Amino acid sequence: MSSRDRILGRVRQALADVPRDDTPYEQAVERAYLREHGTRGAGETVELLAENLADYRAVVHRCDAEGLAETIAGLLAARGASSVLVPPGLDERWLAATTVARVPDRPESTPEELDRVDSVVTGCAVAIAETGTIVLDASPDQGRRRVTLVPDHHICVVRVPGQVVSSVPLALERIDPARPSTWISGPSATSDIELDRVEGVHGPRTLEVVLVTD
Question: Where is the signal peptide (predicted)?
């Protein structure tokens, strides 16, 4: 007997005394959760996102669509970046103002090659104001998950207010469950038993979020 057979057998045994007409599982527990806390306008939601991003030690920048390329070029220059990783579907206009060498996101790239790249620029799927979280879903303007986990500097562009929602339940409605998702709340960080914070352990040490007026 396989482990699978044992597990399924125990499930059947545990359910043996449940009537066939019992309330279905998805209806058994009332889930009248709050979908968001309070009522905010679009501007207030964006301000809450910026506040919580900063609280997680992300660096927040703001610009309009016309100034986005110059903003990104300035961030790469300030970082001293000599190379930037580019997802296949990234809007070319976002990098029009920089001469930094572009490294394409290739399936055959090794972790060592990605580690030598200075920065990565991506879009996002949605941003959650209440938690200060950026969600990536591997869409063409975001690339595969590893391109935002290996390079030490991540610039993420969020279109506001269109890509900003108040809460996690509202964000889940926008995410395709069949796509791999990465949820980012600030730069990568962890703490040891003495609560000494260390950044850059399992992802970028620096997260810069550009809130661009759409």
Answer: none
